[in-house]
Specification:
Layout: H1 20-23, H2 26-38, H3 45-59, H4 62-74, H5 79-83, H6 96-109, H7 120-129, H8 132-155
């Protein structure tokens, strides 16, 4: 496995010069449907943002991490809550339901050395905090951010720009 240089210059523009949504127009339809499903109101918006931020951190995408950090800040989330997402397991700034949602996204995105990723125990813990519709919505939220991970890692949009900003 090749190692990455930590001293190399990091490009400030996107890797892919063409907007993926222009190349594959159906991308906008799928994206809009995922946003509607994730934003159906059954999961608090801050929880959705925290889950999306953690996903960006897990996959190592500066674009997604900066994007979701910015969304949380603009929504008025305190810095302590935002910065403690990286160490969510023992954060006093996050609620038990938020920690359960973060445990789910971590389980889905990280391989498990001990069997299935989302264990029966983890599912039961999440189900203690979320009604069935909210739990299904959390699955959609995790799926939504997973949908954008290949765009973030392959097309590599410039961090700090809007969704379509890197290609305008």
């Amino acid at each position: 496995m090749a190692t990455r240089s930590i001293t190399a210059e990091v490009p400030t523009g996107p890797r892919m010069s063409e907007d993926p949504a222009q190349l594959v127009p159906e991308l906008a339809e799928v994206s809009a449907a995922l946003f509607r499903a994730a934003g159906n109101g059954s999961v608090p918006r801050p929880t959705i943002g925290l889950v999306q931020l953690r996903a960006g951190q897990i996959v190592g995408s500066t674009y997604l991490t900066v994007l979701h950090t910015g969304f949380l800040r603009r929504a008025g989330e305190p810095e302590e809550r935002i910065t403690s997402v990286a160490s969510w397991q023992d954060s006093p700034y996050l609620t038990a339901p938020e920690r359960a949602a973060l445990a789910l996204v971590e389980a889905v995105l990280q391989p498990s050395a001990h069997g299935e990723r989302v264990s029966g125990d983890l599912y039961a813990q999440a189900a203690e905090h979320y009604e069935p519709k909210a739990l299904a919505t959390l699955m959609c939220v995790i799926g939504q951010v997973n949908f954008f991970i290949p765009v973030a890692l392959i097309a590599k949009p410039a961090p700090g720009r809007s969704f379509d900003g890197p290609w305008n």
